[in-house]
Amino acid sequence: MMKRETVLVLQGGGALGAYECGVYKALEEREIVPDLVAGVSIGAVNAAIIAGNRRGKAAPALEAFWNEIAVPDPLIPDVDLRRFVAAWQIALFGVPKLFSPRWLTPSWPALLPVTWWTGTSLYDPAPLKKTLEEYVDFDRLAARETRLILTAVNVETGELKVFDSAEQRITVDHILASGSFPPGLPWTVIDGKPYWDGGLVSNTPLGPVMEKRAGVPMKIYLMHLFPKAQPLPTNLAGVLARQKDILYSDKTECDLRSCELKNETLALVQELMAHLDPATAERIRQSGRYERLVEQGCQVEITRFAHVGEAFESESKDYDFSRGTIQEHIRHGYEQAQVILAQEALVAGS
Predict the structure, then answer these.
(1) Which 8-state DSSP code applies to residue 181?
(2) Residue 62 neighbours by CB distance under 10 Å
(3) Distance between CA 259 and CA 269 in Å, rounded?
(4) Residue 248 binned pLDDT confidence (cut-offs 50, 70, 90)
(5) Among candidate residues 165, 245, 161, 164, the one with its CA nearest the CA of residue 197
(6) CA 335 from chain center: how many Å?
(7) How confident is the model over 254-306, as pLDDT tens digits?
(8) Which of 100, 107, 199, 301 is the most buried (most CB within 10 A)?
(9) H/E element holding 305?
(10) What is the rounded CA–CA span in Å between residue 179 and residue 41?
(11) Which are the contacts of 97, defined by CB distance < 8 A and separation ≥ 6?
């Protein structure tokens, strides 16, 4: 019998990643720590901080990261107006610990025509690189106490690339590559190849996990940051917000259906083999095709944590890094996870 692995799968979603921070805080309080963490985009940042800190002590580091990157709220009494102004301030002036606008550099005005025609991004991610170096122990990642899987997409070929700490040394550039979302951020070059945000291909890195750990029993804790179902929008801002929900809603169901199909195929083959003579059945069991089919079998149990949206959210929800918004996302994730985990514990104990 193989030991069941605990796996954490983190989506991308910019500022919504604070919700994942809240969920992980609840998980760690219950001493649920992952053997493997997979992430894309901001989920890659969260995943690297979790895997790059001592097991059972990663939640404080993750929360400290989110508190550090959060920008002060504008001093405006009205909540909706405050969040609107905060989002515009972030778009114009960046987030000091994450990214800085290229148009605020001293040479930018003189280079405006050149930048427009030859530039490839609006913001510089150098601040994030420095921040990650403070919060991620890359030697710990190399030690593989917690396995880390990140995804990015090759800009030239359009193919998904998987970076796996079990197969290579993960650096800060691998994390940046997974979160290099265009046109905001530039592609990140690794081994001579340019990479953009893996969320452009799939915003849920569940598929790579199931491929890498095929046949291994897994308990998967899965984050959903964009609501799949929402009421019909009533204005243009709502339309833009709903567009993001649909664009970045995950391909999880497709991955799970593939898993179920593999299991059903294996079960059917085994049922048919039961009607064969023993020698023929044994010959099939020894074949490479049968062995590969068995290896692809899925033994997964999934717990989902879904950010269903908060009343104050708008089209800017993925880049509103204001302190009040970040704190609300963390609180929402933590409280929702507490309820879900308590229900699971109750069912397990009954």
Answers:
(1) -
(2) 25
(3) 16
(4) confident
(5) 161
(6) 20
(7) 767 777 787 788 888 889 989 999 999 999 989 988 887 777 777 888 899 99
(8) 199
(9) strand 300-306
(10) 4
(11) 68, 69, 127, 128, 131
- Give yes or no for a contact between 76 and 85, defined as CB atoms under 8 angstroms apart: yes
Pick the more confident residue, 111 or 297: 297
* Element spanning 332, H or E: helix 323-349
Residue in this structure with the two tokens 């908060």, named with its chain if needed: 310
Task: For residue 268, give the 3-state DSSP assignment.
Answer: helix
Look at the block and give the residue holding tokens 């290896």. Answer: 295
User: Which residue from 186, 208, 212 is spatially nearest to 197, judged by alpha carbons?
Assistant: 186
**Given the structure tokens 């800085």, which residue do they identify?**
100
CB 215 within 8 A of CB 78: no
309 phi and psi angles, rounded to 5 deg: 95, 140
pTM for this predicted structure: 0.88
Residue type, 208: P
In this prediction, residue 252 carries a pLDDT of 65
